């Protein structure tokens, strides 16, 4: 389960890098 979580974290990290700050801005706007 820990390995699965780590893999998920890596995927999320890669997606975040791919989309850049635009997604973070959208998240902040939603909050």
Offer a quick outline of the entry:
With about 30 residues, this protein is mainly α. It is built from 2 helices and no strands.
Write a structural description.
This protein is mostly helical and 31 residues long. The chain has one domain (1-31). Helix content is 90%, strand content 0%. The chain is elongated, with a radius of gyration of 12 Å. The model has no long low-confidence stretch (mean pLDDT 73).
Question: What order do the helices and strands come in, and which of them pair?
Answer:
Layout: H1 2-19, H2 21-30
Please, how many domains? 1
Distance between the termini: 30 Å
Whole-number average pLDDT? 73
Order of helices and strands: HH
